[in-house]
Please model this.
Amino acid sequence: MKELSHLHHRNPVLLVHGLMDTSRKMRKIAAHLRGLGWQVTDIDLTANNGDTRLEILAQQVAAKIERTFAPHQRIDLLGFSMGGLVTRYYIQRLSGIDRVQRFVTISTPHRGTIAANFSMRCGCIQMRPDHDFIRDLNRDVDLLNELNFTSLWTPFDLIILPPSSSQLGIGTEQKIPVLTHPLMVADRRVLEAIATALAQPVKSPI
Model:
């Protein structure tokens, strides 16, 4: 991975955590990327327990980006678990497609998760496989082909059920056999895959 530290062009990266987490959950990713020379910013979503609808959390992401980065600064986004859906909503519904160039999701229930059936919190309900929120985002999922999209996932995930829900059939998908969902933000193989994804040359405008 040392060669990545010599790249000249990098966008700043915003990290977005998942359900019941805070920005501390992303600290190993942040430290790894900063060690390679990236400018890294994070966010604490509120409420983080599923009581807030995902589109409201996406508005928090949009506000964070507006406060933190210059108006014409292109950025890269990384979302873990629920954070991947929140960032997708920002990209697909809040004009984030005009700012984001590289987008990485980690163990994100792109097609929903059966585990969400066990919660009645509104944000969790939106992550059910048959919910309109999931269906709406997947109606124009091809929009993500306009940027560098990477999905990292583990076949051993017991939170994203089935684990293959993290697959969208577009962009780059990498299966990394990490033993548990929470370890996806700390495993060395995942950290290296993130850095590789963020180092890819951006797509040229059509």
User: Anything to note?
Assistant: The CA atoms of residues 62 and 104 lie 17 Å apart. The beta strands are 13-16, 40-43, 75-80, 100-106, 148-153, 172-175.
